[in-house]
């Protein structure tokens, strides 16, 4: 006769493989997007965003404006976003959520500032006024390059990194190696197990340390 026993004690659940895989994948993607996005935004702000001409001494005078001349917001926010990306791993729980939000906002601000600067002519108008000596002079034959949109792409990558940090950041490890992924301290391994002093290997170890085994 076979008797089956039923117990009400639940079996311990292990971490779902899918969740662990999603955490590792999101971490890799966020790091890549954040680093590349910040680099792209910074690079784009150093390129020529617009160009035109001003009338000086009866002839055209070429004018150019870099992204940093048009607006300094994308470069500043890219640096803030890069710092936030690093800081995500230095904090936990609510702090990590706040830093991830700052990373996302930095990306969104970079996108908005870059798109607004794509059609801005203020920097070239100021150059035209200085070149011609006429405060009312404005730039002529104004054209824009694609670099503002490149900066916006960099901001979008920062925004994506921030959204990933908001969604999966709780699964990511921190900088401290003393803790496991769930935040609990790791059980410390005993430094040295107490050995039998009469065992031959213990005698040899004592001799190696310069101790008298007797």
Entry keywords:
214 residues, mainly alpha, 3-stranded antiparallel sheet, 3 strands, 53% helix, 10% strand, TIGR02234 family membrane protein, Trp_biosyn_TM_oprn/chp, transmembrane, transmembrane helix
Strand content: 5-15%
Mean pLDDT: 81
Number of strands: 3
In percent, how helical is the residue content? Answer: 40-55%
Calculate the terminal CA-CA distance, rounded to whole Å.
Answer: 63 Å
Shape: elongated
* Helix and strand element order: HEEHHHHEHH
Q: Which class best fits the helix and strand makeup?
A: mainly alpha
**How is the largest sheet built, in terms of strand order?**
2-1-3
Structure write-up:
This protein has a three-stranded antiparallel sheet. It is built from seven helices and three strands. It has helices spanning 17-45, 67-70, 73-87, 94-117, 122-132, 147-168, 200-208; strands spanning 48-56, 59-66, 140-144. The termini are far apart. It has 214 residues and is mainly alpha-helical. Strand 1 (48-56) and strand 2 form a beta hairpin. 53% of the residues lie in helices and 10% in strands. The chain crosses the membrane at residues 27-45, 70-90, 97-118, 146-166. This is TIGR02234 family membrane protein.
